[in-house]
Amino acid sequence: MTPVLIPDDATADRQGNKAAGRVALPKALGTVGFAQGVMRESVASRLKYEELHERALADPAGFWGERAAATLDWTTPWDTVVAGRFGAGAGAGAFPAWFAGGSLNAAHNCVDRHVEAGLGDKPAIVFEAVDGSSEVYTYARLLRETALFAGVLRSLGAGKGDRIILYLPMIPELPIAMLACARIGAIHSVVFAGFSSQTLRARIESCGACIVVTSEAGWRTGVARTLKDEVDEALVDQTGVRNVIVVRSRRSRAASCGGEGDSAGSVMTPGRDLWWHEGMAAQESEPVVPCLPVEATHPLFILWTSGSSGAPKGVVHATGGYLLYAAETYSVVFDHRDPDVHFCIADIGWITGHTYLVYGPLAVGGTTLLYEDAAAPQESRRLFEMMARHGVTTLYTTPSVIGAMMAEGDEGTNGVESSSLKIVASTGDPLSPDATARFRRRLKAQRCVVLDTWWQTETGGILLWPLPSIEVTQPGSAFRPFFGVDPVVLRNDGSRADPGEVGNLCLAQPWPGILCGLWGDDASGSGARTLYFSRFDRLFSTGDQAAHDGEGGFRVEGASGDDVWLWGQRVSSADVERALMKDPRVVEAAVVGFPDPAKGEGIYCYVVLRGEAEPSVALCDALVKDVTDAIGPFVVPDKIHFVPALPRARSGKLIRRILRSIAEGDPESLGDTSTLADPSAVDDLRDGPMSRVWTIDAEAQS
């Protein structure tokens, strides 16, 4: 499909870009309005939803071509909407190419065009700091600061295709830096600010970053952490990074009262390091950096995730398809209507923050709330007060955050009204009916819709969710696939599972938000093929388990992988195990999750010691330090269980279900143990003379 372009005088000059056109649209509806109007109609009735869903599956080129024309501004029309199929993309890769031949710019679509449309005074980002102060970034201000920082990056030699690491806390400079990278065609890679210098260094080296953007310090669960020191440690003997840009912390800004010579205690390396505020000031007198149109298939960002495989991998999302899917899913799931205020609690270091804190809301001209700290049990009242104070209408969170809020009891939010809230969506494990009822009660918003959603880093956006206007949204009820999403549930032999039968959740048809590849994969995409397509031919394997009801509904049962969900964030069990085994006294280690009412899951470590090594408090302290040093201070083992051996099948495969049963306090429900190479290992795990469990104290957990 090749859309026909018509001139548009209002957008003909993109601050230095070549003349741009816009795909012809119904004039009475406009760009974003048209997209939202179709979306609202799609969920107004079950019949309309099914009609559009079937059309998206039968004619993905026509369906997504119309969506792309209506929702985004394009500099150049595309040649084909989608080329290739799962397992065999348009080139030699493993994924189809979306909107090949077309060009656009993500920063223009998220910022510039809204200012051009007269929305410059509308709040784009509302920021609340740890100290309670707040700041509003209108679209005009966001445009100005994004363009200035794009100038800073360009002055340092960054350009299209360069990789830039963003190791920043939850402050406005993070989305500004993301959009500035997109403005010049650079590829950003956000590294969660809770990660250690070792993890940061691995990300820098893996993507070949030339610039790191960081801050003096960042907050997490009420504790300040020096990020610049972590960067300096990560860059020891590292020669690829040319420059480090440092945001001065808000606390040191207040202490210095704006003085240039009092920029806190960070040690700056001459010739390499640059203060953010100094770089921005130097750009004030320079020409405004225009948005560079890039191919729709050009990478927008790399996001590192362990996913279901347990091994970190760089997921790459392309500009055109990802941005379209972020805008579409945000508008539909959260029923976006002005003047909505959206609050996504997730950290931007994870895909949820990328899609539903930054790109989704901004692409449709919405207002998004950004909170400097992380959600924690002690933050419960603060989060409710923030929602009431800023008039939050839609909230995206996780079951663990809701659980943390519930831990304080109903008295924690007495006197706090959140009547503006209309939709709460959750991602991760399914919500329980009890948690949902209590959450509504505490919100004092009984009519608020509470939704479960399901998706992954690789998918770019939400794939499954219940239709709130036409179905009972009881937690755990059947999810409906988003437009163009075709889930199938298979048995291990590849045959279709019967209704109600739990099997492997796979996806039969691509959608625009799907990753475009893995960073560092070879030209044929062999790594992605092995990871996602080797088990079931031409089907994308999600690694999760699900059941279907035979009527278009799906129930996700949970991950079939081995990772732990800590505060709603996936922590790789393999990473924790590797860290534990750095200690020379450790022979083997296995890590599983167990239910924790506040965090979602706790980290339960099984450790096999060498020779004469004995369990001790000192050994536990050393193991905890190894884990936090390797991964980050937010990953602290809850329990360390010293055992003589781990349960393995005759094939050598570790039987984690047994470990989970014991960790969950249900050692009698182990299932069949006859296939174990040594069935007596189970008895040793439960009550053997060498089996000892050590609980890490609360001080270490903080």
Topology of this protein?
Layout: E1 5-7, E2 21-23, H1 31-42, H2 46-58, H3 60-71, E3 80-85, E4 88-89, E5 97-100, E6 103-104, H4 106-116, E7 123-128, E8 134-138, H5 139-155, E9 163-167, H6 173-184, E10 187-190, H7 197-207, E11 211-215, E12 217-220, E13 223-226, H8 227-234, E14 243-247, H9 250-256, E15 273-275, H10 276-283, E16 294-295, E17 299-305, E18 313-318, H11 319-333, E19 341-344, H12 351-363, E20 367-371, H13 380-389, E21 394-397, H14 399-407, E22 423-427, H15 433-443, E23 449-453, E24 464-465, E25 480-481, E26 487-490, E27 503-507, E28 517-518, H16 526-533, E29 540-548, E30 554-559, E31 564-566, E32 569-571, H17 573-580, E33 586-596, E34 600-609, H18 617-630, E35 639-642, H19 656-663, H20 680-687, E36 692-695, H21 698-701
Parallel strand pairs: 7-20, 9-10, 9-11, 11-14, 14-15, 19-20, 19-21, 21-22, 22-23, 34-35
Antiparallel strand pairs: 1-2, 3-4, 3-5, 6-16, 7-8, 12-13, 17-18, 18-28, 24-25, 26-27, 27-29, 29-30, 31-32, 33-34, 35-36
Quick recap:
The protein is an alpha/beta fold and 702 residues long. It is built from 21 helices and 36 strands. Strand 31 and strand 32 form a beta hairpin.
Can you offer a commentary on this structure?
With 702 residues, the protein is an alpha/beta fold. Among the domains are: 5-100, no CATH class; 485-559, Luciferase, domain 3, CATH 2.30.38; 564-701, 2-Layer Sandwich (GMP Synthetase, Chain A, domain 3), CATH 3.30.300.30. Helices cover 31% and strands 23% of the residues. The chain has 21 helices and 36 strands. The strands form 11 sheets. A 7-stranded mixed β-sheet has the order 8-7-20-19-21-22-23. Strands 10-9-11-14-15 form a 5-stranded parallel β-sheet, sandwiched between helices. It has a 4-stranded antiparallel β-sheet with strand order 26-27-29-30. Helix 1 packs across helix 3. It is globular. The termini are far apart. Mean pLDDT is 82; it is low at 1-35, 256-263 and 698-702.
